[in-house]
Amino acid sequence: MRAQEEAGCTEKARTREEGNDNIAQGWFSPGQVFVLDEYCARYGVRGCHRHLSYLQDLMEYSENSSLVDPTLLHYSYAFCASHVHGNRPDGMGTVTVEEKEQFEAVRSRLMVLLEDQITHFRYCFPFGRPEGALKATLSLQERVLMKDITTPVPTEEMKKLVQMCLERAAQINYNQLLEYAQLKVDPEAPPEKRLEDMMRLGELCIEVLQQNDEHHSEAFSWWPEAMAEHSETFLSLYTADMDAALQGQPVDSWDCFPLFQLLNNYLLTDSHLCNGTFHKHLQDLFMPLVVRYIDLMESSIAQSIHRGFEQETWQSVNLQGINLPDIFNGTATSEDLFWKLDALQMFVMDLHWPEPEFAKHLEQRLKLMASDMMEACVKRTKSAFDSKMQKSSKSTDLRVALSVCTMFNVLMDAKKQCSKLCVLDTGQETDKQWQQYHSKIDVLIDDTFKEMIASLVSKLASVLDGVLSKLSRYDEGTFFSSFLSFTVSPAARFYCFTPLLCLSQSIELKTKQLLCSPHASPSPTSPPYLPSICPPSRLRPPPSTWKFL
């Protein structure tokens, strides 16, 4: 008995020496193992007593936050369990009462220690270090749960234990995170400060979950549901603080959308959390806000169109980042409209709404809204153009104003933006009703464009017709009046103006050069005055229309 006590003291001294060395992690050196083996063999120290003493010392150091290799614990515990259950690992068939009592005490103590390490896995095994230690701890826990060495532990029992440990771990991890971030939930704090705290806390929660997935998920690979439940429990604690912060935000405040984007973008990348409990709660929380925001933006854009075109001066604006003269740009109202529609669609797209049906509904609603707004813009532009043509002079002092060019620019911009803002993604335009609605705005723009060109050509033709009528009566009654008559038939006049109709296909370039002020420099490919568009022979009336005495 005294030899066993001396052996225990000797091994305890060796254990204390190795316990202070975190690199050894409790393992003896080959020389130390040789000394202990010789001592135990010489004085007849039983192997079970030796390993029980070793386990008690290792657990003591582990409880004091010293790093002990779980494989070493597993080896000694397996030896003692095999001996107690009569398998004779050291050749001895007898089991003393003292050994059995010590084994049961060590087993209970080891089970508590392992549960505590699994619960504090982020702090006992930071960043998965030592490598494989957490997996070895779970394996040892399963070995300790075995009632004998032959009967395996039921799967549900081990799973239930792991779930219990991870549930406690979620609460511990969240409290530690609050302390680390130095955040205190204060209901009296300003709404902006509370929302800012939730953004920062959300970023930290995502970082914790990412670290768990990167460094610890492999060890829990046998229980993926338990790890997913741990993440949901962890996020449920964050949910309570997030809901309280959002409820304190002012009505119609949209500063909370970045929080949704932050959380939703992460949840979409996690197969276990995507469309889980927290994700669905997040969608239910923000869905009314998204609908409300789109309703208000639609009303705001409609009012801006109504007020903007009422006060529109039809002066082209200088667009930043676009290297074009002002004459090639639209008005302030039209450019603001296209920018708002594009920004709203980009905002909804960046939300990456996870529920497919609602996401499709949002996209279709925005496309329909863009079509309606563009239709209103085109009609208001056409109305202003008609009013401008009615007020324009019919005499030879007619000059096409720069505002008319701007109106053509608005239609051209609407045509370009229509393909971007009013068309669904490929594969979604399967509904005939939707296709008809989409083609409606294209037909409206094309018809309006043609009507405006025809109206402008008609105005120029009426002026020129008046000039020719005056010239036909020049010096009437003299002998040479017939030679000075330039009256032509309507067919010949139409023949002269055929080139103007050809300009409709390239109105963005040629019409703007044709209608620009005299101060603008002519293009080398398209002269600035009308008669040079076609050969002089075509402008001369046919001989059949000449009049002679």
UniProtKB/TrEMBL annotation:
Gene3D superfamilies: 1.10.357.50. Its main location: membrane. Keywords: Lipid-binding, Membrane, Synapse, Transport. Residues 240-381 form the MHD1 domain. The keyword Membrane applies. GO terms for biological process: dense core granule exocytosis; positive regulation of exocytosis; synaptic vesicle exocytosis. GO terms for cellular component: endomembrane system; glutamatergic synapse; presynapse. It is found in: Endomembrane system; Synapse. Pfam families: MUN. One of its GO terms (molecular function) is lipid binding. InterPro entries: CAPS (IPR033227), MUN_dom (IPR010439), Munc13_1 (IPR014770). This is MHD1 domain-containing protein. It comes from Knipowitschia caucasica.
